[in-house]
Amino acid sequence: MATLQDVNIAILAVDGFEQVELTGPRHRLHEEGARTVLVSARTDPIQGFHHDKPGDRFPVDLTFLQAASEPEVFDALLLPGGVVNADEIRMQPKAQELVRACFDAGKPVAVICHGAWLLISAGVVKGRKMTSWPSLQDDLRNAGVEWVDEEAVVDGVLVSSRKPDDIPAFNEAFIGVLRKAVEGRDRK
What are the DJ-1/PfpI domain coordinates in residue numbering (predicted)? Predict the structure, then answer.
């Protein structure tokens, strides 16, 4: 089984992200030996939320501008949800650019809940099979997605999930996709 020891994952978020959708997957990725880098619009700490209540603040490692200038340093992307986060981040051109670069390079991308809005705005979901928070299904269908109501959906290197309750299934699906990507990279 492939190790995730040398895997670098960019986590894209701004203020208003659903905290458990960042911390749950990040913790599980760290257990597997992966490294994570928190990427945001500014270098100021960003505010997590527990649904509609403020949670913790998290230090930012890089800006979208910095990360988009060197997308090759990342092996994968993780996009947590949260309505406020997802609505703001989709309007960030450099976040969209980073997403497109990762899709173009065939790198794994994992998205949960409302995080799919960024993928829609980046124009990378047409023809994909995905899930999301139920209120996004019309947006995804209108963007050309086959939307399904499942805990975790894997479509190639894209992993999507609906909500915080699905995080265990989401984590395992994402780790499975990452392991396959590492095995493919190591065979080259």
Answer: 9-175
